[in-house]
Amino acid sequence: MYCEIRWSLLLFIFVSNFLFAQSDSTKSTKNKFISEVVITGTKTFKRKTESAVIVNILDSKTLNNLQVCNLSEGLKFQPGLRVETNCQTCNYTQLRMNGLQGGYSQILINGRPIFSPLMGLYGMEQLPVNMIEKIEVIRGGGSSLYGSSAIGGTVNVITKLPKKSGYEFSSFLQSIDGKSNDFNITGNATLVSDSHNAGVTFFFNKRNRDFFDANRDNFSELPKLDLTSLGLTSFLKLGQNQKIEFSFSHLEEYRLGGEMADKLAYLRQQSEERTHRIWMASADYQLNFNQDKTILILYAALQNTKRNHYTGIYPDSAEEIRAHLENPPYGLSNTTTWQGGMQLNHDLANLFKRRHVITLGSEYISDEVQDEIASYRYKVDQHAKNWGSFVQSDWDLSDKLNILSGVRMDKHNLIDNLVFNPRLALLYKSNSSTQFRLSYGTGFRAPQAFDTDLHIAFAGGGVSRVRLDPNLKEERSQSISASVNYDKVWNKVIAGFTLESFYTKLQNAFILENLGQDSFGELFEKRNGQSATVKGFTLELRANYNRKIQVETGVTLQNSEFENPVEYIQGVEPRRFFLRTPNSYGFANISFTPDKIWSFNLNYVYTGSMEIAHFGGAINFTQDQMVVTKSFFELNCKLSYTLCLSKFKHDIEFFAGMKNMLNDYQNDFDLGKNRDSNYIYGPNIPRSFFIGIKLRTD
Fold first, then answer.
1. How many Å apart are CA 532 and CA 477, to the nearest integer?
2. 652 vs 644: CA distance, rounded Å
3. What single string gives the DSSP state of each residue in 26-58?
4. Looking at the domain 3-697, which fold is it?
5. Alpha-carbon distances of 415 from 251, 410, 418, 474, 633, rounded to whole Å
C-alpha cells in the first residue's frame, strides 16, 4: 500500500542529499521560501514563521509550473488535502481536508466566505487559475474566526492585485487519451498609475472540452464543458492612510454529461445538463490611524448563482415515457450569499514592551438557497442568516513565545442557542530555524440546505435524493494539533520539514441513512449520529537549491471513524469508518529552472485504497455492494522554453507536457444508462498530452 509513498520520500531524500552536497554552511538572508507573509490564520499580516497557526501557500508561479486549469486541480498539491471527483456524469469535485469531506471546509474568496453551498459543488472547477495570485491553506478548525463549516480547514483564494502595468496571454490544447480535446485561452492585463496610487487588473478565461468516453459505451466519463469567465480587481489610495479595493467577476458555464447523442437532454437515455451563471463582487475600505498602530477595515461581498439544470433517466414503460415527455425533470436554482462587516486591529506596542495585537470584528452573512425539480417532488427553500462577532489576542510574551487566543460568538437562525468557539494556539521558537506549535479550537457546522450530500445522482437505475431530518441539530467539533517546523538556510540551499499531528472529535456528526426506495429512486435522510473521530499526522519535506531546484513532498496517514456503525446501503453490513476516505495520501513536486530559458516540472499524487458504496443496476454490476478500491497515483510533467525578446520587452514561452503519464485510470466504470454515477474514483483524467504558448511583457 505504501510503496508509492516510500518512492516519493526516497526521491526527496536523494535530491536533498544532492543539494546538501553542493552547499556550504555560510548563512544568508532567508528567502521567500520561508519568509512569506500570510493573513488567513489570524486575519492580520504576519510572516509564516511568526504565526502560531501553520499556513501553507500555493502561489501563482507554482500553479503555472503545475499547468493546472482551475482551483480544483491546484489544491491536489497541498499536504493534508485531497480533491476527489464524485459523479461520473457531471464530474463535480469536492475537497477533503484531514480526512473530512467538503462540507467541513471553508473556502474563502479574498478572506470572505461567499463560496455558496451551490457553488461548492462545481465552484472549484469554475475558478480559473489565472485570476489567482495565491492560495493560503490552514488545516484544522477555524470557526473562531470564520464561523460555520471551518472544521477540517480553511482555503483562502487571493485574487491578483495590480502591481505593475503589463499583460499576459496564454493558450493551450490538451488531448485526453487521444479521444477528446480540451482547449483553453487565458488573458490578463494590468494598468497601474505612475504614482502607484491606483491600479486595475483584468482577467479572461475561455475553456472548451469535448465529451470523453473511457469504456466505449456511448456514455461520458468526462462531460462536455464550455466555460467563460472574466473579471477585475482594482485599488485606489485616497491618501497616505486610506485605501479602497474592489473586485468583480462573472462566470458562465455549460456542462453536459451522460449519453453522447445528438438529442435534447431529456430525450437521452441518461444525462445531466447544467448552465451556471455566477456573479461575485467585493469591496474593502481600509483606514490606518494612530501612527499606523490602528487599522479599521469595512467590507462587503456578494455572490449570486443562477442554475438551469436537468437530471434524468429515460424511462422504459409506455406510461412512464408519457409522463416524462409531458413533464421532464428540469430544475431551477438560485442562491445568493452576501456578507458585510468590520474589523479593527490595534497594536498595543508598549504592553510589557512586547508586540500585542488585538483584533475585533463583527459580520453578518446571509445565504439564500432555492432549488427545485418539480417532477421529482424535490425542493430546497432555505434562508440561513448568521451574525458573528469575534475577538483575538496575538501576543509576543517573549522573543521565543507567542500566544494566540480568541473566541467567536455566532447567532445562526437555524440554531436555537448562541454558539461560542474559542481558540488557543502557542508558538515557541527554540531558535531561528525551529518552531513548535500547539493549538486547540472548537468548531460547528450548521444544518445546511444544500451541499455535496444533496447532489442528485443516479443509483441503480433511479435517482437518489437526500432530505434533511426535521430535528437535525448543528454539528460540533473539538480539535487539537501539535507540530514542529524546521527550516535551515545555507549559502545556496534552504531545506526543512514540518511534522504535524491532528485529532478532531465530532459530536452530533451528520450521517446519511438509507430509507430505501420510493417511486423516484433511492431516498436518503441526513441525520445526527453519535460522534466520530479523525486523527493522524502529516509530514512535509522541502528543499530549494539556488532558486533553481525546488522539491516539495507531503504524506498524510490518518483514520476516520464513527462511534457507532452507519448503514450506508440497506441490507449491507454497517461500517464505522468514513466512506471515500483513504488512510494514506500524498504528493511530490520537483521543479528545475536552470536559467530564464528552460524549466521542467515533475509531480506526483498518491491516493491509498478506500471503501465506497456501489449501488447495483448497471449491466456489469447488478447488486448493491461495498467496494474496496485499489491505491492509485498520478504522475505529470511539463517542459517550458522561453524566448526572451529583450528589444521588444516581451517573452514568448512554449510549453508541453503530459498528465497521468502511466495512465493509472479507473477501468471498472458502470455501463449503460442504469449506472451508479457515484461509482467513480482515481485520477480525474486518463493519460493526456498538452501543448501551449504564452506571450507576456517582461
1. 9
2. 7
3. ------HHHH-EE-TTTSS-EEGGG-SS--EEE
4. Maltoporin; Chain A (2.40.170)
5. 33, 10, 8, 7, 42
Element (H or E) spanning 146, and its range?
helix 143-146
Using alpha carbons, select from 142, 146, 170 the residue that is nearest to residue 60.
170
Task: Report pLDDT digits (tens) over 523-567.
Answer: 778 888 889 999 999 999 999 999 899 999 999 999 999 988 888
Torsion angle of C-alpha atoms 431, 432, 433, 434, degrees rounded to 10: 40
| Residues pairing with 248 in the sheet | 232, 281
d(C-alpha 300, C-alpha 131), whole Å = 20
Separation between Cα atoms, residue 3 and residue 698, nearest integer Å:
43
Phi-psi region of 682 (alpha: psi -120 to 50; beta: other; left: phi over 0): left
Distance CA 202, CA 193 (A): 15
Dihedral sign for Cα atoms in the order 82, 88, 91, 94: negative
Q: Extract the C-alpha cell encoding 515.
A: 430509507
Q: Does position 51 have pLDDT exceeding 80, yes or no?
A: yes
Number of DSSP helices (H) and strands (E) in the chain, helices first: 7, 37
Cell of 490: 545555507
Q: Are 212 and 220 in contact (CB under 8 A)?
A: yes
Query: What pLDDT, on the 0 to 100 scale, is given for residue 236?
Result: 96
Complete DSSP assignment for 411-422: EETTSSS-EEEE
- The arithmetic mean of pLDDT across residues 322-326, rounded, is 93
Q: Assess contact for 414 and 151: CB atoms under 8 A.
A: no
What gap in Å lies between CA 448 and CA 194, rounded to an integer?
48
- Residue 455's CB: how many other CB atoms inside 10 A? 21
110 within 8 A of 282, measured Cβ to Cβ? yes
User: What dihedral angle (degrees, nearest 10) is formed by the CA atoms of 18, 22, 23, 24?
Assistant: 130
* CB 342 within 8 Å of CB 296: yes
pLDDT tens track for 452-479 = 555 655 555 556 677 778 888 888 999 9
C-alpha cell at 355: 508586540
Give residue 189's pLDDT band: very low, low, confident or very high (50, 70, 90): very high
Q: How large is the average pLDDT for residues 365-392?
A: 89
Judge contact between 303 and 337, C-beta under 8 A.
Answer: yes
**Spatial separation of the C-alpha atoms in residues 285 and 236, rounded to whole Å:** 10
Cell 456542462 belongs to residue:
255
Mean pLDDT of the chain: 87
pTM for the model stands at 0.88
- What torsion, rounded to 10 degrees, do the Cα atoms 103, 106, 107, 112 define? 140
Using CA atoms in the order 508, 512, 514, 519, what is the torsion angle rounded to 10 degrees? 120
Look-up of cell digits 460522534: 531
Determine the Cα–Cα distance for residues 504 and 152; give it in Å rounded to an integer: 8
What is the residue type of 339? Q
CA separation for the pair 289, 543 (Å, rounded)? 41
| CA proximity to 486, closest of 433, 426, 562 | 433
C-alpha 524/C-alpha 579 separation (Å) is: 15
CA–CA distances in Å: residue 678 to residues 90, 121, 458 = 10, 14, 7
pLDDT above 70: residue 600 = yes
The H or E element containing residue 446 is none
What one-character DSSP code corresponds to residue 551? E
Give the separation between CA 31 and CA 359, rounded to whole angstroms: 29
In this model, does residue 68 exceed pLDDT 60?
A: yes
Q: Write down the residue that cell numbers 457553488 correspond to.
A: 119
Q: Count CA within 13 A, CB hemisphere, residue 458.
A: 29
The residue with cell 501539535 is: 482
660: left (phi over 0), alpha (psi -120 to 50) or beta: left
In this structure, are residues 205 and 184 in contact, taking their beta carbons and an 8 Å threshold?
yes
